[in-house]
UniProtKB/TrEMBL annotation:
PANTHER family: AUXIN EFFLUX CARRIER FAMILY PROTEIN (PTHR36838), TRANSPORTER AUXIN EFFLUX CARRIER EC FAMILY (PTHR36838:SF3)
TM spans (from-to): 31-50, 62-83, 89-112, 133-152, 190-207
Organism of provenance: Kitasatospora setae (strain ATCC 33774 / DSM 43861 / JCM 3304 / KCC A-0304 / NBRC 14216 / KM-6054) (Streptomyces setae)
Database matches in Pfam families: Mem_trans (PF03547)
Major location (coarse): membrane
Keywords: Cell membrane, Membrane, Transmembrane, Transmembrane helix, Transport
Descriptive protein name: AEC family transporter
Gene Ontology terms: biological process: transmembrane transport
Bilayer topology: Multi-pass membrane protein
Entry GO terms, CC: membrane
Compartment annotation: Membrane
Amino acid sequence: MLGRFVFHVAMPAALFTVVARTDLASFADTWVLAFAAGTVLASLLGLLAGRRRERSTAERTVAVMAAGYVNSGNLGIPVAAQVLGDASYAAPVLLFQVLLVTPVVLAVLDATTGAAGGATRPARLRRLTRLPLRNPVILGAGLGALFSAAGWRLPGPQLRAAVLLSALPTAQNVYVYARLYGAAPVLARSAVLVSTVTLSVIAWSLGGG
């Protein structure tokens, strides 16, 4: 129940609040472009690593996500608020992942794993096109972006934001997608666990120092 509350209520509300207060022109900021480039590079490394073994296209897609899809929601917002002093730094990353990366990844998984839940291909395509309206996380971020469009304030680059948010652990959504499509769920689970534990150890070490 707690997980459902977070997914359907808390996370969409948090995303809406953060994105609505963020200038969408920040997408053109140098650090956001650096983050996007780092995401592409990490994803390519994940793809290369996944091709070394006999994996299906769907499993390689999960490997790509495990390498390049950071936890910008549950951890990105509080980490940015604590370290950078402003949670809005997470908003461009959230929009980049939720509105651009996620639909592409889900489309690949949907096309390469067969009919999820017994649905026919046309039904899967219709479900995919309605994804932004059915997924509360995407809906929250999208509505926040619409509200933010009312005012434009271009913030200056900050290198720390790109480095910090690029180092976030693998998103738990990677495991959710992997399990839903039956594509390398163990790999996704391990990536989420190890990367999250690693962040916790680093945070503890810095705090102790």
